[in-house]
Specification:
The chain has twelve helices and seven strands. By secondary structure, it is of the alpha/beta class. Strands 3-2-1-4 form a four-stranded parallel sheet, with helices on both faces.
Length: 275
Amino acid sequence: MTPSPAALAKREVALARLRGLGSALVAYSGGVDSAYLLSLACEALGDRAVAFTALSPAIAPDELESARAVASLLGARHIEKRSGELEDPRYAANPVNRCYFCKTELYSLAESEARALKLGAVVSGTNADELADYRPGLQAAGEHFIVQPLAEAGLTKDEIRALSRAAGLPTWDKPQQPCLSSRIPYGTEVTAGRLQQLAQSEMALRKLGLREFRVRYHGEVARIEVGAAELEKLVELRAEASAALRAAGFKYVSLDLEPFRTGRLNEGLVLLRRA
């Protein structure tokens, strides 16, 4: 996976955008996009680039540790602050625009931190592909004047992965990991206990060697979606997987016969909008 000339040109556009800001607070989760953005920000701005992570029960502990490790690898200053989105009843009710309330909390915290540090802007790792999906968080970004250098440069997910690999970032092939609240069906309340169940379950499956999957919450039932390439592996590990999820508090464990794919949760929303 080698970056194309087009991707390299877009990289320069993103770098120029960051340099023009003078300084920036990077909304940083440790995923593919935000890790690459942080690496660019460090290149463009040096110690005037600061990583910011909101500590939330919707992020599994092993994901937070991974984010810390990558920030350390990049030599970036990394600030963490507790996020209170779960205390917002609008978020906890889990409406279809739940992400709007989450991102509003994140960007409010980030803005406050950027002001305290006298940084020029808050930047996020939104990529060009995300602009075509249902992303309520983009509304919050617009309301808080969040700068999106990767999306502005037209960088797609595949291009960011290729550029990340060329830059030696360990996140280049990391599976997408949206927050754990996305495992709970819209309209079902998001609680700290349910998020802890999901975190424990997914960390256990990662320890078993699975990479591309989701554990979906359905009350007493945990439904596992796994990528087609890992289905056979999960079947071989079904006893261990079932035991791990039962230990997390689920009474029943099921396997979805349809392979996992990103954006699946929103497919029903698309159909509703077309109806």
